[in-house]
């Protein structure tokens, strides 16, 4: 008899989970509170670890077609335009950059028709012998398992982990945008107190983000585009041009939060996944990628272990150390790259690093995070 899971949240983590469950022969119902499916935000990059997980989900080819190679981690600059490290012409990029909506669409198109329900906000979760029931706007559903992929302000986490602390403001804020910009290779410009990231994305566009410190969350300006343009001032080309080419109404301003580590991602037949479990600062580019990893590991455990309870223990033991270590590292990286006091030392260290050693560190197997390999999922043709 086929098992059934309720997946709360229809973002990248939730859709990856539904697709992973489909690969192992489970049924899933994805409850998305928005009235229409889509992905908010602007851009992101996916590292080799996440790309391998997408391959295990069977969508690597589609993802690569929707993304663009980016050399941002190889092109590090100062605001006056000098290169601290520079990617060589012809170098293969280990990173692939996306508009968030493009990767979301790839996953949504791969999930079986009828599995996603929109306008379905979860209001209650009730565990009982042998399963779990989830209440939403259209009544109550019962399943073998509920998987919470509903983001940093997860309803399921609030209901079942009431003792968990709320998201923590990290003292940083960011402006994001998408602009037409053919031919950019990607770069990170390190200024005193903030950095400017550029990723090329599909259809001759670029995603940009300016990240800096903030005294408190929620500080906003009536003219956000003018505010970020003023802050980057005379930084090197093409930074001012990217901001100028972005429609004012399309400039996004967000504050940056993460979650303190939880002692477990599992409670009975409920499990947390992605940002609901381990929301992290974007400074290592691993937030969405870790949710895709989570989905593959959880599905593999459900396929391999004799019981759901054993599978959830496997998932918890596997995922908590890795995701929480990456979240700690991202928090530290963000503190370092937005610190005025640390700026000079950081720039000097990067400039003095031998270029071959730097390139080795950003190769596909250059660091422990990127070297991760997913467990194997059965293909649809080999699944029992």
Automatic annotation (TrEMBL):
It comes from the Bacteria. Coiled coil: none annotated. Pfam families: FAD_binding_3. InterPro entries: FAD-bd (IPR002938), FAD-dep_Monooxygenase_BioMet (IPR050493), FAD/NAD-bd_sf (IPR036188). Residues 5-328 form the FAD-binding domain. One of its GO terms (molecular function) is monooxygenase activity. Keywords: Monooxygenase, Oxidoreductase. This is FAD-dependent monooxygenase.
